[in-house]
Amino acid sequence: MNNQRRDTLKAGGSLGMLGLLAAVGLIKPEMAQAAWNKDAFDAKDMDAALAAVGAGKPAESAEISITAPDIAENGAVVPVGVVSKLPKTEYIAIMIEKNPAMLAASFTLPEGTAADVQTRVKMGQTSNVFAVVKADGKFYMTKKEVKVTLGGCGG
Amino acid sequence: MASPMRIRAAAKEGVTEVRVLMSHVMETGQRKDSSGALIPAHFITELTAKHNDKVVLSAEFGPSVSTNPYLAFKFNGGAKGDKVAVTWVDNKGETRTDEVQVS
Amino acid sequence: MRKQLIAAAIGAGVALASPAVFAQQDLNFDEYRAMLEDGNPAELYEMEGEELWKTARGPKNATLEQCDLGLGPGVVQGAAAQLPRYFADADKVQDLETRLMYCMEKQQGIDPAEIVNGKFLQGERRQMAALVAYVVGQSKGEKIAVDLSHPKMKEMYALGEQAFYYRTGAMDFACSSCHSQDGKRIRATQLPNITKPEGAAAGWGSWPAYRVSNSQFWTMQHRLWDCFRQQRTAEPIFASDVTIALSVFMAGKGNGAEAQWPGVKR
Amino acid sequence: MNSAFALRSALLSAAIVGLAACGKKEEPAKVEAPAPAVQAPAPVADDLQPKVEEMMLASFKANGIASLDRQKQDAVQKACSSPTQPDAETMKRLEAAEMATIQWPSDGNYTGGDWKEGQKIAASGRGLTWTDKTPDNNGGGCYNCHAMDPNEVSEGTIGVSLEGYAKLRGTSEEVIKYTWGKLWNAKAYNACSDMPRNGYGGILTEAQIRHVMAYLFDPQSPVNQ
Predict the structure, then answer these.
(1) Among A1, A70, A73, beta carbon nearest to C137
(2) pLDDT, tens digit (0-9, with 9 covering 90-100), for D55-78
(3) Distance CA D189, CA D183 (A)
(4) Is A27 in the B-facing interface, judged by CB distances under 8 Å?
(5) Residue C8 and residue B34: Cβ atoms within 8 Å?
(6) For chain C, which domains are there?
């Protein structure tokens, strides 16, 4: 077994900790004030979501690849990875075309962090998954369809 | 009370790969309970990862990220024994930070 | 409650999955499953269970560190791969959960009735599930090696085999209705053929598991309980003979194969 | 539901009085387990059967609509609880008893249901579990085991494909009556069928079965596209 977990710092967990963490420098004060892009996460269609992240109409790029299964056994957990080979990639967003709110997650990558992230998203139905990338100040995108199936007795 | 994250950070050939599992309901706010009442939204909104004191990733999540979120990323540098810390904040203002040593 | 949550599902509401052109094709989820293997959220339960194992609890304020899972007091590594087994101290065949319940009673003073009469995902059964995750995690990749030599194990195996084919309930189902042919599915869910060693090993060796469809960690007792629910029988009692017998049957038939628990399942 | 079940058990048990032999199991085929630590499973003892029956009762408890009556086997359940089917004569006798339970539509209307309703019933696997509050409004669970609409991916494979049902099988009186009967009580045609006895077991109502019939036979139904 991996014993690393024993080194896990047991910090945080309550509302009051936030200030404390900020005070000890674990997080920046501005984080506590939530710069979360509400407009982008509330966007109900592609154009609105792209506008809210400042992407406008991104060009398709073959330099971006999406790693996701062709077919998912369940829509509640769909693994999605995005790799960008575009130089100076600084931002990656994952959008699900047919979800009620399209934007699932966005990542800001400081210099030195690889343009290679993986997460898992919920998909209500078979849909295109979009990867929107900002590189050297410009936006690009690519897409991949993931089919979602139903299993079990349904009882 | 937020539960601990499971963080693994491994350095190999000058690159550190970080994998994180977070314990969080990621409730969308659109599901109903058995009495038909909406279950309030409760999800992680922001996440920051640091290598020693340097921010190596910041992310924003929406409710479409799966329950018990998983995240994997890589950054240049990092040596055995360095610290990697991950902090998340959710829409209710709850937060959690966990830290591991790079292996 | 659970059902409605699933039915209402994840924001968008999972209706019938969208039409696709390959209805008659085999559904191949290998790629999907491979991508979930690393970072199985069951690891969160393993962490919790390991803490719990070492935490003094119950009326006797004791830890479980002296619990004998069959390989001696406190030995967790490899123990799950050899369960269920006959335990002389209890004079019973016990699966992992029954054994943990026994240890919780003897060492911590926790009343087994609290577990037997409880509900999955709640109270002491919730704690039990975390302990189960920890213990099976310590047998990850080990070969299933259940000793069937004791007469009581032999009897349990035979009873389990009979129970497997026992049709009853409102829809006439037995375990065998769904699990006795190769390559069958319920909806998109692939079903192991438990009448064969490889199928039995696939079933036995991948539960307990984290279920992505409802974000829950299910023990084998929980898995069997819900199988019977879907079979439309009456409710099986926690740790009852039928659950132990079916477990001995599956584990015994799967003997020799590698267990990949805790699993990650639809 | 429960009383219907008890009645059914009683009737069918009565119908096969004297067939005690079919409750007896043939020796199931054994597959040698690969591991060295394993002994061959013990042979099934003659006295195992009562123990199994006792266990299948004692290990369960009633919960809501799922009463302990469900743990008592009726004639076909008992006869079909082994890897091998009963002999042909026994099968025939069981099937005849099941056939007699089928209720044919009182007004001769077999297929006049709404295929859209039928689709919902076919897709729903709900009902009759101990978490269901009433024994009514059940799904048919058809898609759990059968392919129906060619565009549906998430379809089971335990049962035969029903895609293009009427297109392939036609709409003769024989086919229509067989289908109604099969939906009402599948055991009338194969005593050990995996398919539940929808009408006889009170899983679906006559009206629901008519909707499912429409889903299978209506030329507009996706099944026949």
Answers:
(1) A1
(2) 999 999 999 999 999 999 999 999
(3) 11
(4) yes
(5) no
(6) 41-265 (1.10.760.10)
